[in-house]
Amino acid sequence: MTSEYFKIALRNLRSRRLRSWLTILGIVIGVFLVISMLSLSEGLRQSIMQELQSMGPDMIMVFPGDSFDITTLISGAELEDREVNAVRRARGVDVVLEMPWTALVVRHYQESKTTMIVGISLEEGISVLRDDMGWNTTSGEFARPGRREVMAGSLVPIDVFSNLQTGDILNIGGRSFTVSGILRSLGNRQDDMSIIMDLSSFREVTGKREGTPIAMVRIQDGYLVEDVMGNIERELERVAVRTQGSDSPSFSVTSSEAVMDMVDNILGALQWAVVAFASIAILVGGIGIMNTMFTSVRERTKEIGVLKAVGAKRRDISFIFLFESGIIGFIGGVGGVIFGVGAALLAEAFLREAHPVLYIEAHISPWLIIFGLMFSFLIGCASGFFPARQASKLEPVEALRYE
Amino acid sequence: MGFANNTIIKTEDIWKVYDLGRVHLDILKGIDLEILEGDFVVILGPSGSGKSTLLNLISCLDVPSKGKVTVEGNDISGLSEDELAEVRGKKIGFVFQQFNLLSHLTALENVIIPSIFQGKRSYDVKDKAGNILTSLGLEGRVNHKPAELSGGEKQRVAIARSLINDPDIIVADEPTGNVDSKTGEKIMNILVKLNKDEGKTVIVVTHDTELTKFANRVISIKDGEIHDQ
User: Fold this and answer.
1) B25 in a structural domain
2) How many domains does one find in chain B?
3) Reported pTM
4) Is residue B166 part of a domain?
């Protein structure tokens, strides 16, 4: 029975092809928005999460400035040595890694380019980088402390100095360094285009004796992240009181977990906003379906009369109209999914070409697709409800007389 | 069927009244009528006489304002719309003046439609529908849409559609009204054949006195009352 209604509904839609497609288009747009925007924002969230997770959940980050935000990073504020040492003194702290960076002109054979240089104390940090942050090399080895060796990010041989190889010599700030190895991708473009050297070499090359915009902290076994964060804050406050006579914070201490939560919150809210707006778009599409169906009931009044005369009950007529609107919704959903996935993949390809700071991979979840299809089908059925009811209630004699 | 004199349709003092605010219209004024199984009845009357309204009542498309209509022994006056649809679907086949075929369906699909509302699958009644069309000389028109058919062919498809559920009664409202007289003759002969060969009770409503020659019974109606029977 159901399959027969379905066939009749399909025939009816096909007999009004242009109108059916235009109505379907209304749903396609809404579903397209949901699928493409959610795939991209979920992709963004996951790529940020991946990077933060690669640091390990037990890493603590210390920044200068009273809040961790983009302005602090740009303003060039730095932690001084006495602050870094205060962090080292805090109970539960195992290793503190300063990570200063700067842009310098680097020469490779005849080619000179301004490149991001990062300094890390390799003696202390190699185990943190390898074990906690998951660094690895695709060729060569990690640079050794005290030697004139550097490691190149994975994109350096591709986007900065083409054909750079392990063993090549780079001239940085008038000093020569050997490339000991090429790193595996660290998950973001900026890091992958950097050159990493030992902290002592970095100080030597830049001439800056102290200061770092960020300190990464690994805690000792048996301590809780929150406790150690508190200890670090107290030590830093003590330094602040001693040197400036104030305990107002000029630093912030956070964990990779806390940053993850923050990112999750922000992007979660963004996703809800996307869903809300796209749902409105689908709803408007639903009103379009309702409009089409009401028009259809009016146009087909006589046809409904004929169907009733030959034995169709109210339920039969209702089902035919509900199937029609449901099919419109569902096809709209399928179209929206196809275009949405296509657009997300296109945007992904485009962003990769456009050299973004952050690399986004569209995340297309099967649940999202199922949701898109179900939602559009249900909107279709719901929009068809009142027109179908109107059609089913037509009196056969009146309907047959309708011209 | 255990029904006296094989009466198939009976009306007892049926009235159809329209109350449109100030205007009060008595379309039918107490019609008493008995149609026997196997009758070929022509209900004759000028336009506005109430003959179509009478047809609507005896074919279960509508219920009377007052009075009682019995079809095959069942009182239909108090039935709900869906119950009426059930009776129509099973017992009555319709042929209209305007043919009323669904324009986007083929002849075959038009014939199949009523059986779907009886819970059948189109696949299962395809052969039967094809046979009926063939028996009406439409074997070459099975997959044509109404727009590709002549008036006479359309009316034959409509007759085929009225037969798909094997009804006992066929009602035709001005079946020759939209075709030329020669074609009209053919249409009437088909109905006569169905009456004679298959024992269908046929009720034709018309204003055309010519058609009375096909009937074994003529009921004249004028101003909502039976004039002559």
Assistant:
1) no
2) 1
3) 0.75
4) yes
Domain around B146:
39-62+80-228
In angstroms, the separation between the Cα of residue A384 and the nearest Cα of chain B is 21
How many other C-beta atoms are found inside a 10 Å radius of the C-beta of residue A226?
12
Distance from CA of A307 to the nearest CA of B (A): 7
Q: Which of B56, B61, B85 sits opposite A312 (nearest CB)?
A: B85
In which residue are the tokens 């300063």 written? Answer: A98
- The answer to whether A48 touches A55, Cβ cutoff 8 Å, is no
Contact A309 B104 (CB under 8 A): no
Q: Cα separation of B215 and B208, whole Å?
A: 12
In a domain, B125, yes or no: yes
Q: Which residue of A has its CA nearest to B161?
A: A310
CATH number at residue B223: 3.40.50.300
Residue B143 lies in a domain: yes
Query: Measured between alpha carbons, how far is residue A149 from residues A96, A145, A266 in Å?
Result: 22, 8, 40
Instruction: Determine, for residues A400 and B61 on separate chains, whether the beta-carbon distance falls below 8 Å.
Output: yes
pLDDT tens string, chain B, 229 residues long: the values are 434 458 999 999 999 998 888 888 889 999 999 999 999 999 999 988 999 999 999 999 999 999 999 999 889 988 999 999 999 999 999 999 999 999 999 999 999 999 999 999 999 999 999 999 999 999 999 999 999 999 999 999 999 999 999 999 999 999 999 999 999 999 999 999 999 999 999 999 999 999 999 999 999 999 989 887 7
Distance of CA B11 to the CA centre of its chain: 16
